[in-house]
Specification:
single chain; about 300 residues; alpha/beta; two-stranded antiparallel ribbon; oxidoreductase activity; oxidoreductase; NADP; NAD(P)-bd_dom_sf
């Protein structure tokens, strides 16, 4: 089942023309998200939407992309993934502008932040990294499904996870107390369970929506703002001992762009991909169908309290 692509996959030369396709990138104002938006613009995507909570950063990202790419159609929409109300406004705004959606990059995340809750009362890593994106997908699903028969290309959702799913606590996800700060867990464990949830949810989504390709993936170890200073220092030291450097955001975007644009026969829905296009790996817990169904049902119950 495993598939592999060369690490030489290039955002400049191997992405097909994307004329006519509409894309959303969460966290598109910086890091991997911004690099993804730039790659989409260079490939002639019809319309790119940056969803980010920071308008100043979003506007700066658009200005930078426009300075490097001729006449991209790119729009900023304010979206705070820690707020269900903000996510709903963002989805409504998008649907007023565009009747179609071909590519959805669930890219934004928080990592190793202090104990806290989202505006709706969920553990902050889990609320932003998993629940926020799950609500966005739910609200955009009618548009995604409507787009499927209108285009010969696949409609795809890229869900960015990480190799740090191995930080998840024993049992994978402690579902019973996700509406607390989970003080009994370390920040690594809280982050790890949210990233494991990304994979589990993407796989269950793929089982339930067969006409859309849902692709969980790992971008690689990338030097972005999401890393805390201590983690960057540690990882740089480890990688240099091995003769490597942390990936740039542009390099980190390659697996996302591969997943979004590779020929349909090369990309399997619901399969986790390491860089670049290496399928069949991932955590043992992410293959736990019972946990995936439990997470799905809990997620639907929580989201339906807001938008049911």
């Amino acid at each position: 089942m495993a598939t592999s692509q060369s690490d030489s996959f290039s955002n400049d030369s191997e992405i097909p023309d994307l004329s006519g396709r509409v894309a959303i990138v969460t966290g598109g104002a910086s890091g991997i998200g911004k690099a993804t938006c730039h790659a989409l613009a260079k490939s002639n995507a019809k319309h790119i939407f940056i969803l980010s909570r920071n308008e100043n950063s979003g506007m700066a990202a658009m200005e930078d992309i426009r300075s490097k790419t001729p006449n991209p159609q790119i729009t900023f929409i304010s979206c705070d993934l820690s707020s269900f109300a903000s996510i709903q406004r963002a989805a409504n705004t998008f649907n007023l502008i565009s009747p179609r959606l071909d590519l959805l990059f669930c890219n934004a995340a928080v990592c190793l932040v202090p104990q806290g809750l989202t505006q709706d009362g969920y553990e902050i890593h889990f609320g932003i990294n998993h629940l926020g994106h799950a609500l966005l997908i739910k609200l955009l699903m009618p548009t995604l499904l409507k787009t499927v028969p209108k285009w010969p290309h696949d409609v795809r959702i890229m869900v960015l996870s990480t190799c740090r799913w191995n930080w998840a606590p024993e049992g994978g996800i402690i579902i019973d107390d996700l509406q607390t700060t989970q003080p009994q867990l370390t920040s690594k464990e809280r982050y790890g369970q949210s990233k494991l949830a990304n994979i589990l949810y993407a796989r269950e989504l793929a089982r339930r929506y067969r006409t859309i390709k849902i692709i969980p993936l790992h971008p690689g170890i990338v030097d972005t703002d999401i890393m805390c200073r201590l983690q960057k220092k540690y990882l740089r030291a480890v990688y240099r001992k091995l003769g490597h450097e942390l990936l740039t955001p542009e390099e980190g975007a390659r697996n996302s762009m591969w997943a979004a644009t590779a020929p349909r026969k090369e990309v399997l829905s619901g399969i986790y991909y390491d860089p670049i296009g290496v399928a069949g790996k991932g955590p043992k817990a992410s293959m736990d169908r019972d946990l995936a169904v439990e997470l799905w049902e809990w997620t639907e119950k929580e989201l339906n309290k807001f938008c049911g």
